[in-house]
Amino acid sequence: MPEPRITVLMPVFNGGEYVGAAIESILGQTFGDFEFLIIDDGSTDASPAICRSYRDPRIRWIGNGENLGLIATLNKGLDLARGEYVARMDCDDISFPERFARQIEFMDRHPEIGLCGTWYERDSNGGKTIMKPAAEDHLIRFYLIFDTVFAHNTIFFRRDILERYRLRYDPHYKYAEDYEFWVRCSRHTRLANIPEVLLRYHYHSGNTSNQFKSEQVRTADRIRGLYLPLVGLTVKEVEQRLHNDLVQFRFKGDLERLKTAGAWLVALGSAARRNLEVPWPVINQELGRYWYGACAKRADLGLEAWRVFNAYPVGARADWTWKVKLLARSILRRKT
């Protein structure tokens, strides 16, 4: 039996409310040369029966028998995958009909790319928002300094990259395992997001980012510490803590620590420009909001906070809206 071009990897755990629509969105793809690997992770609802009710020969249904957890299930799927590419899918989302056609065309044309995602539509309580993560490799590497840059359910891997470098999800980074995985992938291959909306992400209370928010934040803090040296920064523990506080908008400290934060963001911007070749307007826009977030925490200092903000290039070059907001807060001494 010839190997398929794509293995679609979809873990399922108690997804009975949505899984039928997810399966149908895969079976309805305009590009049909795939195997659909559905791994049930010990569901206690109707998910197994719903999955097995589909008779399409491309479906490979596997039951774990017990709940092993998402990371173990994903790694099991990567071990079982036979396709040239591996496409991730979640059991509560919808892949648009052209998704695989667009992604395989892109990857075939760009052999230097080992992993690509897409733009996506976020559906939250009936409200829809188009999410447009960075598309190009150097911009993705820049934004990875702060957080994940991919929607996990849009990812399309080149399987030979996974096998060559034995890339699997690391159980030590639970609830942010995808973010850590992208960081490791970035050492071995170029990354991309296709600037087309090719998936609908159903955002609801059962999402990991809602259920395990605090654990996810703590894990993401650790991952940034792994990534910062990859962009040319020698980072001490105190700087790593400061960086995480800035990114999570939880800055605390006196005037001296605020000045240290300004110096850190200047160094970060210089490294991004020098090592990643990110344009200054992009750097200034991103760092400006973190600098505003820190200075607004100390708006109780009055106009001193405003002066410190403007004393550093990251503030002087920041978007005017941040300057206006901080000036108003400083005058009123109203900190966030």
Overall pLDDT confidence: 95
* CATH top level assignment of the largest domain: Alpha Beta
Order of helices and strands: EHEHEHEEHEEHEHHEHHHHHHHH
Question: What is the alpha-carbon Rg in Å?
Answer: 22 Å
How many individual domains?
2
Q: Overall 3D geometry?
A: elongated
Distance between the termini: 62 Å
CATH topology of the largest domain: Spore Coat Polysaccharide Biosynthesis Protein SpsA, Chain A
Biggest sheet, in brief?
9 strands, mixed
Structural class: alpha/beta
Can you tell me about this structure?
- The protein is α/β, with parallel strands linked by helices and 336 residues long.
- The chain has two domains: 6-213, Alpha-Beta Complex (Spore Coat Polysaccharide Biosynthesis Protein SpsA, Chain A); 232-332, no CATH class.
- The chain contains 15 helices and nine strands.
- The protein has helices at 19-27, 47-52, 70-80, 99-109, 137-143, 159-164, 177-185, 208-211, 213-227, 237-247, 255-276, 280-296, 303-311, 313-316, 320-332; strands at residues 6-12, 34-40, 59-63, 85-88, 94-95, 113-124, 127-131, 156-158, 190-203.
- Strands 1, 2, 3, 4, 5, 6, 7, 8 and 9 form a nine-stranded mixed beta sheet that branches.
- Helix 11 (255-276) packs antiparallel against helix 12, helix 12 (280-296) packs antiparallel against helix 13 (303-311) and helix 13 packs antiparallel against helix 15 (320-332).
- It is elongated.
- The relative contact order is 0.10.
- The mean pLDDT is 95.
